[in-house]
């Protein structure tokens, strides 16, 4: 889904190249919002970002490379937010509040990028070993260890993350037409049950 | 994954045709146990069941049809067990005990058929709308409504079932080498947390 490992080449990009890349990704994100994933072609992105087509190919290789870069970009942003952003998602808030905020952030991010995330889901036998999944799992496990230290926090983290699976969010919101507010309440209720606390009022 | 709808043609099969079908499915299951899913070819099944290759093709169409029939067969068995089999999985036991037994039955069934279930996982956007998934969800939702009637039982059922996803069981047991006993305990603990009860001693 997301590639959240270190991006060693990023700091070496010259400032204008980095700006270029960001502009291309923004253009691609805009195209998706307007026309769905199908609307993202190398040509459309080049034209929307007002650069030559060759620049887009040079930067991302092909359309799949561009879509992966887009997910990667947003995955890194999420990771930066929960690792070092402002509370309650970032450090500084109590772990229970951070866990609540984490699920809601993931829910809304997935809802915004549903098509892209579904298109990028790895096959069944790699779905849970993907680096992006691992980064999220490490974070949720760490928070759970602070809230319910005696539990099997690794497996509870798997369950909590499974309830945020983009394919499930797609099913609930698009196929069964549940409003996001219901998914949000269900997340807060699930966190309360799993941690044996009370949901926030 | 599984096709759990009614099988209208089954009762019309002549007794020898039904026996034939069962023998072919048993042969295929044996081949999978011995050689993995890759070991299942139409020829190998015909030879193991001591029938002509034409019989296998006539009955299942092709290899995919055979694998689907195999999952379908075992899915129907599971469904028969939780709908009408002996307690604690079937009716007669308290709903909390049935829910515990349900997860353990699904866990061990998946562990036995992991390769087959992974190979048969539908693509992301159909994973949760598949009839087999729906049958399991209906059952878990029904049990939860008896245990925690005030909760959003539909969404809690989704979460409980997500923790039993064959792709997750594959990841935990094959890629992270967790013993089944740990997954079993985690299920009992999860049920206790979600229903705000105590795990069995």
TrEMBL record, chains A, B:
It comes from the Bacteria. It holds the Pfam family TetR_N. InterPro entries: Homeodomain-like_sf, HTH-type_TetR-like_transc_reg, HTH_TetR, Tet_transcr_reg_TetR-rel_C_sf. Residues 41-60 bind DNA. Keywords: DNA-binding. The keyword NAD does not apply. This is TetR family transcriptional regulator. Residues 18-78 form the HTH tetR-type domain. The keyword DNA-binding applies. One of its GO terms (molecular function) is DNA-binding transcription factor activity. It comes from Streptomyces griseofuscus.
């Amino acid at each position: 889904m997301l590639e959240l490992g270190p991006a060693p080449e990023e700091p070496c990009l010259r400032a204008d190249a980095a700006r270029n890349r960001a502009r291309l990704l923004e253009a691609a994100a805009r195209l998706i919002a307007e026309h769905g994933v199908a609307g993202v072609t190398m040509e459309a992105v080049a034209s929307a970002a007002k650069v030559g087509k060759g620049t887009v190919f040079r930067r991302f290789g092909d359309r799949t490379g561009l879509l992966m870069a887009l997910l990667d970009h947003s995955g890194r942003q999420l990771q930066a937010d929960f690792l070092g952003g402002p509370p309650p998602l970032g450090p500084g808030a109590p772990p229970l509040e951070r866990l609540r905020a984490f699920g809601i952030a993931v829910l809304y991010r997935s809802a915004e990028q549903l098509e892209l995330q579904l298109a990028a889901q790895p096959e069944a036998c790699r779905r849970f070993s993907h680096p992006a999944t691992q980064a999220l799992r490490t974070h949720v496990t760490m928070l759970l260890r602070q809230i319910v230290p005696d539990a099997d926090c690794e497996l509870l983290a798997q369950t909590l993350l499974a309830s945020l699976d983009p394919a499930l969010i797609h099913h609930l919101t698009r196929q069964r037409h549940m409003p996001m507010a219901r998914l949000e309440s269900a997340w807060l209720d699930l966190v309360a049950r799993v941690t044996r606390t009370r949901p926030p009022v």
